[in-house]
Q: What sequence folds into this?
């Protein structure tokens, strides 16, 4: 039967909405475990056991679950062996509040509707992730309840429970939740996080710039009423604590847990573009906990789950709990299992990073770039059905049809997950790192550095496939700047000591590398075949010796030290100078290697990249980590470099 199931199920996109699939007696779940192989496992769900045989059936089910345990998808497993089974999806960029820490004071520019994911696309991507092992999906925004079809969307996602989805949650401000709560619970809603930063109706209006406190409390009370009737919806209240604004209400929130089975979670104030974050406004969780202990000295820590984002406490005798989300002072990156899809279809592997890849563009590629609705997915189903009828034998490794598209999506997802860092930056870097405003986790960030944009054509390749030099004769002369970096990492202490003490037999390593980099920038057209010879107006190469265990903007901390190189090239011309900057940085690195290879043949040349580029038609390019190390946008301006203007978008 396993072979039959493969032939039947194979031609259909695994993540196609369930209503598009034919019915079979068996349900097959396809779990890919690498970018080149996949495993089909068939689950015979059978007939529900009679009550009299329940205990025996449960034992059999447990044995079967152990026997048929499925490997977790390698596409959702990063290089630190973190398995990402929790997906957050932003379903809108709109919001009916204007919270101080979330919405920039100057407002935002809404995206055209066609740039946002359609209901069919959200459903498809949800199914794709569930089929790879995601067990929890949370709908966010903006404010998700302002989406007109939020209930039908939740109902469609609820259908994925038969595929392995266990939890459907929503994060909301609660303003209009009570109107839609009943059908949401019927659709499978299992958890609600309500953002509420004050219990004072007047202060609520000040902090949100809108009225609505009574509506939020109505939603909270409705959830508690439904839970008393057995709904089983996990209720959490999220409170962002800001010094000088609402920290005096911490104990009032704690008191709400005395008789009510809720969890109040206090969140350390986090920096996002436009929220005027400062370290002085942030109240660390240790200070909040001390405030609680002053009144309730018996408060105690509860044992949490591996992937918890909060540290949970309870006061003996209280029905509810108190939690702390400590992203700023005590990160929980080591057990992070969360991925995010933004409203415009970008996969974001870390809330505090701005590295994103577009799933939307890849999904729409074969639809002329147009949004995929139910009709488009139905057309896909018909194509797959027709192809199946015409195919006598079907190979799971075939590159035909939608399965090829799905493999591209999974490869893109897997590559992004593999690039996820061990942990996000600390306070000093986060406050300067460009990132979306919190409200715009649904929109594309302004910084181009790590953000995916539709891939342009290769300018040095003709339609025939032949290489050619681009004609820049008609281009305007403009000021252009490029900065590139590289590093040389040592495997023992000998080269570091020789450079520091200037005892290298070949002479001054850092000075020689700097001169070599400048010379290389001027000779770039002689080395790169299709690179235009241009007049360089400035070339500045910095070569720095980095102490062991020290991290800087260019290289990670190295046990035996390293050399960090930054090359800046300026010109006024018709084409950019990225190649000149890269050549300067890399030749300087090669020079360091050449002068130190007698002492260390295991040196590694690393981090060769462009970190900054301005001028020309394509405009500004920034790499976020480097920008943060320069002191943010203000630091760029201090160096005479162009920086993005802060404005609504």
A:
């Amino acid at each position: 039967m396993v072979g039959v199931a493969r032939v039947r199920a194979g031609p259909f996109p695994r993540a196609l909405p369930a209503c598009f699939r034919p019915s079979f007696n068996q349900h097959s779940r396809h779990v890919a475990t690498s970018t080149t192989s996949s495993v089909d496992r068939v689950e015979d769900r059978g007939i529900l056991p009679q009550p009299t045989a329940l205990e025996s059936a449960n034992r059999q089910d447990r044995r079967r679950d152990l026997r048929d345990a499925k490997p977790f998808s390698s596409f959702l497993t990063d290089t630190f062996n973190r398995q990402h089974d929790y997906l957050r999806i932003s379903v809108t960029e709109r919001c009916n509040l204007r919270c101080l820490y979330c919405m920039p004071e100057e407002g935002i520019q809404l995206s055209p509707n066609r740039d946002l994911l359609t209901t069919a696309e959200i459903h498809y991507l949800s199914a794709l992730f569930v089929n790879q092992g995601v067990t929890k999906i949370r709908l966010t925004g903006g404010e998700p309840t302002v989406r007109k079809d939020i209930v039908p969307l939740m109902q469609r996602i609820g259908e994925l429970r038969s595929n392995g989805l266990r939890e459907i949650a929503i994060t909301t401000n609660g303003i209009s939740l009570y109107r839609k709560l009943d059908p949401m619970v019927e659709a499978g809603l299992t958890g609600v996080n309500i953002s509420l930063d004050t219990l004072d109706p007047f202060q609520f209006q000040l902090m949100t710039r809108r009225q609505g406190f009574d509506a939020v409390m109505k939603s909270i009370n409705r959830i508690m009423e439904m839970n008393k009737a057995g709904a089983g919806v996990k209720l959490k209240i999220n409170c962002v604590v800001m010094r000088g604004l609402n920290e005096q209400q911490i104990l009032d929130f704690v008191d709400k847990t005395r008789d009510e089975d809720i969890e109040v979670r206090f969140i350390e104030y986090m920096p996002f573009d436009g929220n005027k974050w400062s370290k002085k406004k942030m109240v660390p969780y240790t200070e909040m906990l001390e405030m609680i202990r002053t009144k309730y000295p018996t408060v105690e820590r509860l044992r949490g789950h591996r992937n918890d984002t909060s540290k949970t406490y309870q006061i003996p005798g209280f029905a509810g709990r108190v939690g702390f989300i400590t992203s700023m002072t005590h990160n929980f990156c080591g057990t992070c299992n969360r991925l995010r899809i933004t409203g415009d279809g970008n996969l974001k592997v870390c809330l505090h990073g701005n590295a994103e890849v577009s799933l939307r563009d890849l999904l729409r590629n074969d639809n002329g770039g147009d949004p995929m609705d139910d009709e488009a997915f139905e057309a896909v189903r018909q194509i797959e059905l027709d192809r199946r009828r015409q195919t006598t034998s079907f190979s799971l490794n075939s590159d035909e049809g939608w399965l090829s598209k799905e493999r591209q999506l999974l490869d893109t997802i897997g590559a992004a997950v593999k690039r996820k860092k061990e942990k996000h930056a600390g306070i000093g870097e986060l406050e300067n790192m460009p990132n979306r405003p919190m409200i715009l986790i649904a929109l594309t960030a302004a910084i181009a550095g790590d953000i995916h944009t539709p891939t342009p054509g290769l300018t040095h390749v003709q339609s025939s496939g032949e290489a050619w030099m681009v004609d820049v004769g008609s281009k305007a002369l403009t000021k252009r700047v490029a900065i590139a970096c590289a590093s040389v990492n040592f495997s023992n202490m000998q080269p570091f000591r020789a450079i520091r003490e200037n005892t290298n037999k070949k002479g001054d390593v850092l000075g020689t590398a700097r001169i070599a980099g400048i010379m290389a920038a001027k000779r770039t057209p002689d080395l790169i075949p299709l690179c235009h010879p241009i007049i360089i107006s400035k070339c500045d190469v910095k070569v720095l010796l980095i102490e062991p265990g020290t991290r800087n903007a260019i290289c990670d901390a190295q046990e035996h030290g390293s050399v960090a190189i930054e090359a800046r090239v300026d010109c006024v011309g018709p084409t950019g100078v990225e190649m000149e900057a890269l050549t300067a940085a890399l030749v300087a690195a090669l020079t360091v290697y050449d002068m130190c290879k007698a002492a260390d043949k295991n040196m590694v040349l690393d981090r060769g990249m462009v970190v900054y580029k301005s001028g020309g038609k394509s405009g500004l390019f920034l790499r976020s980590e480097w920008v943060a190390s320069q002191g943010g946008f203000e630091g760029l301006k201090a160096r005479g470099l162009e920086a993005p203007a802060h404005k609504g978008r």
Q: What stands out?
A: The radius of gyration is 28 Å.
